[in-house]
Amino acid sequence: MLSLGNVEVVYDRVFLAIKGVSIEVAEGGMVALLGANGAGKSTALKAISGLLKPERGEVTRGEIRFKGEDIAALSPPDRVRLGIAHVLEGRRVFEHLTPDENLIAATSMHRDRHRIAELKDRVYGYFPCLTDRRSAKAGYLSGGEQQMLAIGRALMTAPQLLLLDEPSLGLAPFLVDEIFGIIRRLNQDGVGILLVEQNATAALDIVSDAYLIENGRIVMNGAAETLKQNPDIQEFYLGGAGHKDYHAVKHYRRRKRWLA
Q1: What is the pLDDT of residues 103-150, one digit of tens each?
Q2: What residues are paired with 165 via a beta bridge?
Q3: CA–CA separation, 233 vs 211, rounded Å?
Q4: 71 with 62: CB under 8 angstroms?
Q5: For a Cys-Cys bond, which of 114, 131, 144, 206 suits 175, CB 3.0-4.6 Å?
Q6: Is the separation of the CB atoms in 31 and 22 below 8 Å?
Q7: 195 neighbors 35 (Cβ within 8 angstroms)
Q8: Which of 211, 250, 175, 161 is nearest to 21 (CA)?
Q9: Sign of the four-CA dihedral 234, 187, 50, 99
Q10: What pTM, to 2 d.p., does this model score?
């Protein structure tokens, strides 16, 4: 459904943020993009959704195809109409509006009131806790509720592909489990997912495939189970270095194999 081929993104015509990135998401698939802060994960998502321009970024090389169509020249609203929705990092909801009003704000592409009502019911079905808070100001919702509302607002566009940027950021562990359970359910209902996440353990538990990006380059990709077993992934991203005895060595410096 989605393919990036050797995509490069430059900010301010100077800084090369991602270099030759190639990613594929099958129709109805769920793929994770893992990496540390500043690796280029969010930039890759913004290249797909078309949100680079406000940050003075542009795709300077490569192609981005959605369902076989080259979308590089399309505006962000046109990409939404095609079926791509992007949930930005940081739970960016309209705090002065109610959850109901937040959801309606995302429906300008729909002209049928019955369709809008149907989509709202679907969102509240996924997030029943929002039903009781639908008349409160969104700014007074908890962090978890705001994250659910941000995802729900994206669902109001009836997407075929959902881009999620750090949905677990700043949430308590039990809320992370709840959010990831809902993401899994969305995927089971036919929505393709491209998940950007620093919580590699949680991400690899629900996706089928994953890519690892470092310094703007894809350095590893494969099935989630395969990446889980990789010793470098375990040590640098899954907390597997805890068993090391650092007193047994004078100097300890493990070099990642993909950089060797």
Answers
A1: 999 988 888 889 999 999 999 999 999 998 888 999 999 999 999 999
A2: 196
A3: 11
A4: no
A5: 144
A6: no
A7: no
A8: 211
A9: negative
A10: 0.90
